[in-house]
Specification:
Layout: H1 3-10, H2 24-28, H3 35-42, H4 44-52, E1 63-68, E2 71-76, E3 79-80, H5 82-86, H6 88-95, E4 99-104, E5 110-114, H7 115-131, E6 139-142, H8 148-160, E7 163-166, H9 173-183, E8 187-191, E9 193-196, E10 199-202, H10 204-211, E11 218-222, E12 236-238, H11 239-242, E13 255-256, E14 260-266, E15 274-279, H12 281-294, E16 303-306, H13 313-325, E17 329-333, H14 344-352, E18 356-359, H15 361-370, H16 373-376, E19 385-389, H17 395-405, E20 412-415, E21 449-452, E22 464-469, E23 479-480, H18 484-492, E24 501-509, E25 515-520, E26 524-527, E27 530-533, H19 534-542, E28 547-557, E29 561-570, H20 581-594, E30 603-606, H21 620-627, H22 643-651
Parallel strand pairs: 4-17, 6-7, 6-8, 7-14, 8-11, 11-12, 16-17, 16-18, 18-19, 19-20, 29-30
Antiparallel strand pairs: 1-2, 3-13, 4-5, 9-10, 14-15, 15-23, 21-22, 22-24, 24-25, 26-27, 28-29
Helix pairs in contact: 3-4, 7-8, 9-10, 12-13, 15-17, 21-22
The structure holds adenosine-5'-monophosphate-propyl ester.
Adenosine-5'-monophosphate-propyl ester (PRX) binds near residues 266, 314, 503, 526 and 531.
Enzyme class: ligase
Catalytic activity: acetate + ATP + CoA = acetyl-CoA + AMP + diphosphate
GO cellular component, one term: cytosol
């Protein structure tokens, strides 16, 4: 990226100065207190050992950390079973009757699943998977809607020491296939269909396409929508046949602390998604610890709801592993927030008495658009702590969340982290922090991060730079599946000399030293809190027969944070029809079917040329100027300076609604 491009990303300095102290009542009985910061700094490994004691280890570790940058081993020599920690342990402790999951289906059906129920379901699923040949180290792909079976499946894999690779339900067959192939998965767990905005949409029909010609031996199918499905005898198995008939007794075996737990694919700066690898002991320790302190979770009292999908890391860490390790009672909702009406979330908060509500800024902005009179109709007095994740939250949305949802009573924790970090890294503590609207504030106790300049030197207060993590942390990724070189190159080469992990985000310190996240500094877009690489969308566009070249940028979007804007050059001799509204729509749909609806460009414009440097690099900064309707910036490094005039003059014609 050009220097000027970096600095423009980093110069968006905020002037927010309001602060909100924690409510006195919450502070008085908070799970974490101010002294934790200094305690963790004084003895980082001792602090993490203390957090690891939240879990039940069948064999205690010998060494807290072995660090040979960039390769970490945490709790070396320790053994545990992750699923046992999330399920059986609570039953053994006498909490089998506690509801683990209040599941709310989109059509209005619901299920209350206690820890004892969860234990039976996970054991049955583990037995069924074992009967299909799944064992230690195998990979299981999962593409499911937000139904309890998704949780059972993940925990059953963990119980068996098999790795799950969960693929978001909105991803295309091609995207699922690429992930199955990369991980060489043996079994796929899916469903007949999924409810989307009140209607059943097919699922297995799509997953069948993904499975063709791969390593998948068995497909386990949950019946959810009663949709007719294509069936391959010998390969396909109904969940209600295989799982329901399996024994509910299963003895969990212990695995090494560093035994792989899951792979989760995320977008990077190239077209090929990265399989982020997480392991067991360190991951679960930080998942449990952060869930405990950032949400001030009180087992047996709190009713927790994280609105993420299980297909993203937030669903892994803050629906499955963190909350269940802590014996939480949580709500899982299957559907969209406006089905059957725009008050659905508040109705659910009211129904279950939700005390902790964790969501994404993009959804808060959507609620703002729908109007404050909608949440006003519901009793939200049960809420105690609110959280956000996935993208920077603008102060306006933060204030709205505080006023209209938290009714001025609830602290907001803006949690910064990534698929790679495994769990929250930078966030306020709800009983300690005097929070500022829009700031993630400071690294959690035990975590060390800094904002640095190009040379790796910490910048001063009031200055911006790159966010790095300068000390290893327990839930850090252990690598990219099958690609050690890419792991080193992507995260550890930018500040190799200093040994810093480079997060890819820009950030700044305000005058008080609080951290403000400023978005990605690489070619990764953030659309509704989801990471999509520009290259991925460009590859999808050029795979269409009419397109020869494409450049994609993320442009500021009021609701989704960023929206995808594409500039395409069509094949020589293309007709006017190929440039028309119909053809543009077909192109947008093509991207949607190649990657998934989340990657569908908001806007595509046909251009004759793309702005390139003399060395042939596309200058996205200029395209972003066009996409955001700004005056085009410095064009002096362009090979052909007339290109931008042509592009801006054509912009109005190709606007897509
Ligand atoms: O750019 C940051 C943004 O989301 C990226 C990580 O995306 P992903 O791996 O999909 O995980 C999302 C859920 C943890 C980061 O590099 N991001 C995440 N949380 C925040 C954020 N940006 C600003 N503030 C946040 N709280």
């Amino acid at each position: 990226m050009a220097e000027s491009e970096k600095s423009s990303a980093l110069s968006a300095l905020s002037t927010e100065s309001r602060t909100f102290p924690p409510p006195a009542e919450l502070a008085a009985q908070a799970n974490a207190t101010e002294d934790w910061y200094a305690r963790a700094d004084a003895d980082r490994e001792g602090f993490w050992a203390e957090q690891a004691d939240r879990l039940l280890w069948t064999k205690k570790w010998d060494t807290v950390l072995e660090w040979e940058a960039p390769f970490a081993k945490w709790f070396v020599g320790g053994e545990l079973n992750v699923a046992y920690n999330c399920v059986d342990r609570h039953v053994d402790d006498g909490n089998g009757d506690r509801v683990a999951i209040h599941w709310e289906g989109e059509p209005g059906d619901s299920r209350a699943i206690t820890y004892a129920d969860l234990q039976r379901e996970v054991c049955k699923t583990a037995n069924a998977l074992a009967a299909m040949g799944v064992g230690k180290g195998d990979r299981v792909a999962i593409q499911l809607p937000m139904i309890p079976e998704a949780v059972f499946s993940m925990l059953a894999c963990a119980r068996l020491g098999a790795m799950h690779s969960v693929v978001f339900g909105g991803f295309s067959p091609g995207a699922l296939k690429a992930r199955i192939e990369d991980a060489e998965a043996k079994v796929l767990i899916t469903s007949d269909g999924q409810f989307r905005r009140g209607k059943p949409a097919p699922m297995k029909e799509n997953t069948d396409q993904a499975v063709e010609g791969t390593t998948i031996e068995k497909v386990l199918v949950v019946k959810r929508t009663e949709t007719d499905v294509p069936w391959t005898d010998g390969r396909d198995v109904w969940w209600h046949d295989a799982v329901d008939s399996a024994s509910d007794q299963h003895t969990a075996q212990s695995f090494d602390a560093e035994h792989p737990l899951f792979i989760l694919y995320t977008s990077g700066t190239t077209g090929k998604p990265k399989g982020i690898l997480h392991t067991s002991g360190g991951y679960l320790t930080q998942a449990a610890y952060t869930h405990h302190v950032t949400f001030d979770h009180k087992p047996g009292e709190s009713v927790y709801w994280c609105t993420a999908d299980i297909g993203w890391v937030t669903g892994h860490t803050y629906i499955v592993y963190g909350p269940l390790a802590n014996g939480a009672t949580q709500v899982i909702y299957e559907g969209t927030p406006n089905t059957p009406h725009e008050g659905r979330h508040w109705e659910i908060v009211d129904k279950y008495g939700v005390t902790i509500y964790y969501t994404a800024p993009t959804l808060i902005r959507t609620f703002m658009k729908w109007g404050e009179d909608i949440p006003a109709k519901y009793d939200l007095s049960s809420l105690r702590v609110l959280g956000t994740v996935g993208e920077p939250i603008n102060p306006e949305a933060w204030m709205w969340f505080r006023t209209r949802i938290g009714r001025e009573r609830c602290p907001i924790v803006d949690t910064w982290w990534q698929t790679e970090t495994g769990a929250t890294m930078i966030a306020p503590l709800p009983g300690v922090t005097h929070a500022k609207p829009g700031s993630a504030m400071r690294p959690l106790p035990g975590i060390s991060a800094a904002v640095v300049d190009d040379s790796g030197t910490r910048v001063g207060n009031g200055e911006g730079g790159y966010l790095v993590i300068d000390k290893p942390w327990p839930s850090m990724l252990r690598g990219i599946w099958g690609d050690t070189e890419r792991y080193q190159e992507t995260y550890w080469s930018r500040f190799a000399e200093q040994g810093f992990y480079f997060a890819g985000d820009g950030a700044k310190y305000d005058d008080d030293g609080a951290i403000w996240l400023l978005g990605r500094v690489d070619d990764v877009m953030n659309v509704s809190g989801h990471r999509i690489s520009t290259t991925e969308v460009e590859s999808a566009l050029v795979s269409h027969s009419t397109v020869v070249e494409a450049a994609v940028v993320g442009a500021a979007d009021e609701t989704t944070g960023q929206g995808i804007v594409a500039f395409v050059i069509l094949r020589a001799g293309s007709t006017d029809e190929a440039k028309g509204a119909e053809a543009i729509k077909a192109l947008r749909d093509h991207v949607s079917s190649e990657i998934g609806p989340i990657a569908k460009p908001r806007q595509i414009m046909v251009v004759e040329e793309l702005p390139k440097t003399r060395s042939g690099k596309i200058m996205r900064r200029l395209l972003r100027d066009v996409a955001e309707n700004r005056e085009v910036g410095d064009v002096s490094t362009l090979a052909d300076t007339s290109v931008m005039d042509l592009i801006t003059s054509g912009m109005q014609d190709s606007k897509e609604e």
